[in-house]
Batch of 2 targets.
Target 1
Amino acid sequence: MNIVEKCMVVSTGENPDANALECLSKEILTQVRTVGAKGVLLNVSGLSFVDSCSFLLLRNMAKAVSMLGARFVLVGFQPGVASTAVDLGLDLEGLNTVRTMEDGLEMIRGLSGAGLLVEEQPETKDEDVPALIEESSDARGAASGESGV
């Protein structure tokens, strides 16, 4: 993880499984709180496929980051992954996606995409962070019965 302009830049790596995404989510949530990040850019360009469980974990990660008062942007979906997500009928509403890191930084800074940015959230207390991490972890169990690609 790197920090650029109070924004965390993180990569999923190549085709992480649900356990790896769950661990990544926990690390991101902890670091957002620790470093006071204003946003998270998650580079998903290493994903060559998506299943419903992994996608749900990404959505829950976005929600949890938002609850900590930071903005969350997915960067670099491959065309096939985007197409598959739509074909599977996965709920894309509320997800901020861009093609490049530069576009992501602009979105987080609020320079583009009016209406696409997550609203400011009330301050989260330190004791709330474990509950947010637990909610994110629960996504794996909730999605385990869903089929994917």
Note: Helices lie at 18-35, 52-67, 79-87, 101-109, 129-143.
Target 2
Amino acid sequence: MHEPYAIEVEPEVRTWLELLPDRQYRKVEEYADLLATHGPSPPCRSPVPSGMGCTS
């Protein structure tokens, strides 16, 4: 398995994140973890024909 992707957060985004309620912040963190793990091409949830853009 490869190293996780690094996610750069701009200062204005960091400020916005700090203002989110805990529940919303945790949701953003969950998706950021998925992005760091899978990169820009997240795995598909269901099979799709070749060439549709999803990777497994």
Note: The chain has one domain: 1-56.
